[in-house]
């Protein structure tokens, strides 16, 4: 039986959540459980999640939690506390995964020297595939740690982000202090910095698809500039709470 718990933080994700959950019913082997943790949605997110719990009951061992405090780090930690699998996979509500996700995760972490993994994220919309930004995000996995943390890069550090569907062993996650709940953004990069102390961060040579809604709103050039700006400032130690002002919530 799979030992992978999937944790999905949500906030006003009515437009994406049902598709994401429907795809999780196709996983083979299936996840041990799916935990949706809502941070106070004001749309139909919770209703969709609860309806999916009933509709997909024979395919998903799923529960819906409401978190008293809003924030992706807070919500993911809350879900991880409830998770019973040996491995925790953090999935964004607007990201879609292959049906062999669980097998790939378990095979990756079967290597003891690997502490954390993630996938290559392809940014897509209804009518576009964002090849340029997707390529930059792929390269950033390598060049960002090489530039800003070269010592850790050669120890196995790779910089993963949430839309890359990060996963790690539950024991390592808690040993390293989980997500920093004080961080409004870059909590995923911060977790990589902590988990590399336990082993390599692995970029799996497989693709997941994430919504391009932020790029669609900003435009490709502006989005690239903002991503670079935030990444460089974070890399040199600027507080993520200051950087959050440049990274607005878009649904």
From TrEMBL:
Protein name as annotated: 4,4'-diaponeurosporenoate glycosyltransferase
GO molecular function, one term: glycosyltransferase activity
Species, as recorded: Tolypothrix tenuis PCC 7101
Domain (Glycosyltransferase 2-like): residue spans on this chain: 5-156
Its biological purpose: Catalyzes the glycosylation of 4,4'-diaponeurosporenoate, i.e. the esterification of glucose at the C1'' position with the carboxyl group of 4,4'-diaponeurosporenic acid, to form glycosyl-4,4'-diaponeurosporenoate. This is a step in the biosynthesis of staphyloxanthin, an orange pigment present in most staphylococci strains.
InterPro entries cross-referenced by the UniProt entry: Glyco_trans_2-like (IPR001173), Nucleotide-diphossugar_trans (IPR029044), Trfase_2_rSAM/seldom_assoc (IPR026461)
Family: Belongs to the glycosyltransferase 2 family. CrtQ subfamily.
Keywords in alphabetical order: Cell membrane, Glycosyltransferase, Membrane, Transferase
GO cellular component, one term: plasma membrane
Protein location: Cell membrane
Pathway recorded for this protein: Carotenoid biosynthesis; staphyloxanthin biosynthesis; staphyloxanthin from farnesyl diphosphate: step 4/5
């Amino acid at each position: 039986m799979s030992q992978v718990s999937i944790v999905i933080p949500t906030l006003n994700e009515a437009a994406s959540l049902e598709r994401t959950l429907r795809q999780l019913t196709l996983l083979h082997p299936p996840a041990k459980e799916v935990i949706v943790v809502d941070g106070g949605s004001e749309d139909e997110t919770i209703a969709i999640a609860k309806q999916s719990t009933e509709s997909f009951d024979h395919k998903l061992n799923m529960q819906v939690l409401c978190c008293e405090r809003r924030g992706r780090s807070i919500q993911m930690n809350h879900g991880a506390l409830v998770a019973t699998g040996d491995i925790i996979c953090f999935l964004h509500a607007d990201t879609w995964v292959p049906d062999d996700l669980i097998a790939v995760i378990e095979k990756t972490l079967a290597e003891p020297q690997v502490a954390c993994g993630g996938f290559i994220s392809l940014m897509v919309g209804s009518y576009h595939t964002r090849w340029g930004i997707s390529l930059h995000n792929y390269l950033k996995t390598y060049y960002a740690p090489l530039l800003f943390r070269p010592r850790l890069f050669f120890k196995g550090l790779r910089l993963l982000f949430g839309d890359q569907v990060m996963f790690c062993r539950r024991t390592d996650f808690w040993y390293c202090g989980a997500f920093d709940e004080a961080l409004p953004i870059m909590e995923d990069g911060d977790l990589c910095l902590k988990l590399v102390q336990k082993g390599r961060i692995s970029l799996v040579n497989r693709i997941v698809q994430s919504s391009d809604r932020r790029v669609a709103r900003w435009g490709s050039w502006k989005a690239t500039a903002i991503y670079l700006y935030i990444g460089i400032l974070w890399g040199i130690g600027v507080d993520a709470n200051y950087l959050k002002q440049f990274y607005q919530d878009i649904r």
